[in-house]
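User: Run a structure prediction on this.
Assistant: Running it now.
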Amino acid sequence: MRARIALTLLTAFAILAIGFSYQGYRDQRQPDDPDWLLQQADEQAWLNDWMSAAPVYHKAELLYQQRNEQAKALYARVSQMMATSEMSGFAPQIASLTDDLQLPAARDPDTRLRILTIRGMLETNYDAGLALKTWTEVGELARRQHHYMLASRAVGEEGIAAFLLGDINGAQEKVMKAYLIAKYLGDPAARVRYASVYGAGLVELKKYDRALKPLDEAIRVANTTKGVAYPSIAVAAKIEALGGLGRYQEAISLTNDAMARVTARHLNMHISELLRIRAGLYERMGQAKFATDDYQAAIDIDKKVSDWRGLSQTEGSMAALYVEQGQLQDALHSIEDAIDANKQIPDELYFLPRNLSIKARILARLGRTRESNTLYEKSADLIDSLLEHAPTANVERELITSLQQVYAGYFDSLCTQNKFADAFRTIEKARGRIEAQSLEHIEAAPPRPASDIDHKLVRLNLALLNTDDPARRATIVDQIWETEGRLPSEFLEGKTAVDPVSLAQLQTDLGPQQVLVEYVLDDPRSYALSITRTSVNRYILPPKQALEQEARDYRSGITQRKPDLALGQKLFQQLLGDIPAYRRNTEVIVVPDGVLHLLPFSALMDGPHYVIESHTLAVSPSGTVFHILKDRQRDLDAYSHPYVGVAAWTQVRPSPFERILRGVNGPQESEFVALPESKDEVETAGADLPKPSTILLGADATETRFKELPLDRYQVLHLALHGYVDPTYPDRSALVFAPEQNGPDDGLLQVREIRQMRLGASLVTLSACDTGVGPVGAAGVNNLVTAFIDGGARSVVSTLWELEDHSTARLMTNFYANLKSESKAQALRDAQIELLRAGFGPYFWASFELVGEPDSLLFGGSNPPSTTHVAQGQATLQESGRRPL
């Protein structure tokens, strides 16, 4: 409600905000009238074209001085500073503006506001702590003087400062607010800036695909709006995004074009930034000499203008390049310069952890181990302080991934020192962190009630499903993106992460035949940490890049039903074969890293046999999550509802809704065909488990009916549905329920909704395509499975690729029959082996994996007494297991 009122007020006052102060003279004044000149310059400056505005401001200043109008002369004088700000140091300019605020002429409200605005712009490029205070004051003064569009821009600038100070939550909220106001109330220059900043933030978090959308928008608006300045921030960020995607020639071409533009205008900071970005491109292309030259040229400019942030970033990159080349003394000199630069802006945290870890790595290689350990610890602590302000699980994942070299570097160093307990603790601070936090705080945090924004997302998703028109779909997708940016923070905001489980405690959690293998992928070498009740050992593996490519290739061969068995043997030997504890034990818990999350370990080849033939396998997001789930046994009396099965896509002939869903997955369309055997699948599973069971079939299997069930009281949830994965926006990944007419839901149970559930299930089975797939990073994989664990499930059976309906139904029938007497992991293994022995290749059974707690018997070996219930008036629970249609 408050947001709507604010937008209404801003609309009413928008006409007052075309410029900053002196407006309305276009028809009445002449070119030699300073008021007329000031208006012209203000309009150019409002479009961020300060270079063109500067000579007009200068002429107005001289005329005001002749008239002895000191307030307006001061306004015009300080307005010229932005055109030359990058040609000298920021500190003296900021000091000069601070002195100007003490002049009698600065008592004029408009002049004071202009001085503060210019100072805020300079401080944003110099010291975010100072900038935040100044922009807060600008916003207050602007609102008081009815300059509401300037007030909106001030909010966006506060967001930029907040990001640099580590307040990710405040940054996202403020920048998105400024962007939306600029877009819908017609402030193109601000729209360019905040779309640029949002995209640049995504680039910094290595979300290159996602970044291109806002960056392209910023560039398009700037190119199609007369007078708007060249979008240098968006262009620079797009170059980095293209480089991150491996599109080097496009990136170099765009860099050279941008360099010509900014060099002509002597924009030193932009030149420096482009040099740094191009150096990074050359480095990834293996052209170290060109990279070194560009880094050094950027450093020279940064020193000239006292750009401490630029120095901190560029000297750090130069140091990392020197380390790769073995020039440790040069690297040490550069990284110390980077850290010294950061001391000039002590409130800005983002680049400091990376730089401290680079110095720690250098010191370790120089034999200064104790100093190295201290720096690594300090770096990890700084990351913790950043993560405490992450507004969502996704942002937290992205931050961990962007700073993963800190954790991997410290892990490597501690392993080299044979400090395995400390090494384990270090990597566990990142691995599975989101799931551990969610499980720790789930009971204390009530579900977030649906907001107006949630309801709007439902309407937009339904609109997307109901149109095949490409232009209309593009518009709706844009609206979804904007609306998602306004979602309230998740319940994890402000919650501290649980302490990682100790190595000693994890060892006591493991069974006598269990080995937990935790992988850490890095370059130039990777690791496997093998943990049993009585032993801990570290094994060196090939580099991350090589392992991940081999894992992709092997997975691809299986999904094409042409597995490369020799490659499967090679991967087995690298990942498991050299670990003696694997041979001595029969149950393996894998904690993957990177692309290994998508590798079917069960289908690796141990000689002529698949791993599944000799070992039971399970996956855990981390050792800490394994410990929490193992420790969180639930009393069987807490389950009043043993089983719910859902199968929506049972029609032999696709429904209109299924046809509409083609294209929901974006460029790679997937048809949501009927799954007729899913009906028998969920009914058979229900028949094998204690009664009463709840089964929702066909048109009854809607998202609304599912949500209305007492889900915290069900022991087993079996969802035989279609699923889709959105790797760019993982929160949009969803399970697809049956369509409903005029209901409150859109039929898409998305990741963001699953995280908010309060489940008590011992087992969730996602008998749907690709449910185990999602973006991978240092914190783990972000997908439907981890969302269910976040929501409280103890174990999730998921899939790594598309399923075949008949073999899936057969595997699931055997799985549930086995559950009557076997643990969850053993029941799944035996069901997979049955398909293998029946002649089915790994495509049909290796997709399934169990994530979470693998050991417990679902019903303690016996079934609880049967009772009859009514599920909130929606579903009559019957012995037969089927709801009447």
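The CA atoms of residues 821 and 861 lie 6 Å apart.
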